[in-house]
């Protein structure tokens, strides 16, 4: 019996644990003490251990001591990070216990936005001009050479957290000074206007076994910082742009050395030159309910496929499940109502509804691309009228 230690500082990965348990594994969960009363799939978890946390921060010495103590009586075979913030923790544990899987160096490529950009650039993958916030002379040279605006990005935060758009040198230096001693944990990057795509992949033995491309409606940065309804739609597999972004994604994941698992990566199609540029990647299932978008379009549950891959561990062939060929779209928003009434969103193409306080969300699935587009456009406008609310985004997920 394989024992899988799942590390997660957020409540997610339920289907991963369910699949691992269904396949005969012993499943152990290491999570935050603040999530003790969360709705974990306890029927699929053999033991849960809690780490004291403050704003989701863990003391890594406590983690290493605790898991090392656990290993006195448990033969841990796999360590899996279920959330982006846990990738480095899991890598450190693998290094310390000498358990196979992604180590510290490769983990950097999937967590550190500076490391992933440098590696991508080294291997010929287009990236927007960027610079580590470190040497002031180089920053001044960059600002004279590269046109504004820039995005100031945190190297180790996920999604849109820590992002700041600056339009001139004064705003740039105001931001750098605001960061104080945290400056070296950030980078600057030329802002490229355009459409943002995301690719969700299944990787086994360094080969992309399956990938699906989608395009955001409004860029996530604008959704998070300016207040917008969030949308995304899966792309037509026969479209030329779909082929382009999937090929770029394949090249990227190979260059970064992802051996197995799932990945969520983002690219921008520049409105200036029409080219695709790499923005960021991760070694995990995408957040914001995008795994359900993939499932609605293809029938593939990324969490369950990830669990199968971890169990196989390169020792046996991996077979992709039979695919559905639907077009899917997602619409989500903060809501002004505590429990939004979505009963009027009752078209037969509705695949899923979000059930979360002060949130509204829906996924459409249909073999008819035109019908999908009509419904997403209609529902987006209705969301603005029926539910839409905004809230200021903090500097960090805990703010």
According to CATH, what is the class of the largest domain? Alpha Beta
Residue share in helix? 25-40%
Query: Domains counted in the coordinates: how many?
Result: 3
Our measurement of the CA-to-CA distance between the termini, rounded to an integer number of angstroms, reads 41 Å
Strand proportion, as a percent range, falls in: 15-25%
How are the strands ordered across the major sheet?
A: 13-12-9-10-11-14-16-15
Number of helices: 12
Structural class: alpha+beta
Radius of gyration, taken over Cα atoms and rounded to an integer in Å? 21 Å
Integer average pLDDT: 94
Order of helices and strands: EHEEHEHHHEHEEHEEEHEHEEHHEEEH
**Number of beta-strand segments:** 16
What is the name of the CATH topology of the largest domain? D-amino Acid Aminotransferase, Chain A, domain 1
Please outline the major beta sheet: 8 strands, antiparallel
Q: Are there runs of 5+ residues with pLDDT below 50, and where?
A: none
Oligomeric organization of the protein chains: single chain
């Amino acid at each position: 019996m394989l024992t899988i230690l799942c590390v997660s500082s957020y409540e997610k990965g339920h289907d991963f644990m369910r699949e691992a348990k269904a396949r005969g594994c012993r499943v152990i969960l290491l999570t935050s003490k603040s999530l003790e009363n969360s709705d974990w799939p306890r029927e699929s978890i053999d033991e849960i251990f809690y780490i004291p946390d403050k704003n989701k921060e863990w003391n890594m010495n406590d983690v290493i001591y605790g898991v090392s103590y656990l290993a006195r009586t448990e033969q841990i075979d796999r360590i899996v990070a279920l959330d982006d913030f846990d990738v480095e923790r899991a890598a450190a544990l693998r290094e310390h216990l000498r358990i196979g899987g992604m180590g510290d160096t490769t983990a950097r490529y999937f967590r550190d936005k500076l490391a992933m950009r440098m590696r991508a650039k080294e291997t010929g993958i287009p990236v927007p001009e960027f610079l580590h916030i470190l040497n002031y002379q180089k920053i001044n040279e960059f600002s004279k050479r590269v046109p504004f605006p820039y995005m100031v990005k945190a190297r180790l935060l996920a999604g849109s957290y820590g992002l700041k758009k600056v339009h001139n040198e004064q705003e740039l230096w105001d931001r750098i000074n605001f960061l104080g001693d945290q400056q070296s944990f950030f980078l600057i990057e030329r802002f490229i206007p355009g459409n943002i795509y995301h690719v969700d992949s299944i990787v086994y033995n360094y080969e992309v076994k399956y990938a699906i491309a989608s395009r955001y409606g409004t860029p996530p940065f604008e959704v998070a910082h300016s207040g917008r309804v969030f949308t995304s739609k899966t792309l037509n597999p026969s479209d030329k742009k779909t082929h382009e972004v999937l090929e770029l994604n394949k090249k990227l994941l190979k260059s970064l050395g992802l051996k197995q698992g799932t990945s969520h990566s983002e690219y921008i199609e520049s409105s200036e030159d029409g080219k695709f540029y790499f923005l960021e990647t991760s070694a995990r299932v995408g957040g914001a309910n995008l795994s359900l978008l993939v499932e609605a379009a293809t029938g593939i549950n990324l969490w369950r496929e990830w669990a199968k891959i971890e169990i196989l561990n390169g020792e046996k062939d991996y077979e992709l499940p039979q695919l559905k060929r639907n077009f899917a779209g997602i619409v989500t928003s903060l809501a002004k109502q505590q429990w939004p009434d979505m009963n009027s969103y009752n078209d037969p193409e509705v695949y899923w509804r979000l059930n979360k306080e002060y949130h509204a969300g829906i996924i459409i699935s249909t073999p008819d691309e035109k019908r999908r587009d009509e419904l997403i456009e209609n529902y987006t406008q209705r969301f603005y009228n029926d539910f839409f609310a905004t809230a200021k985004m903090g500097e960090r997920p805990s703010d």
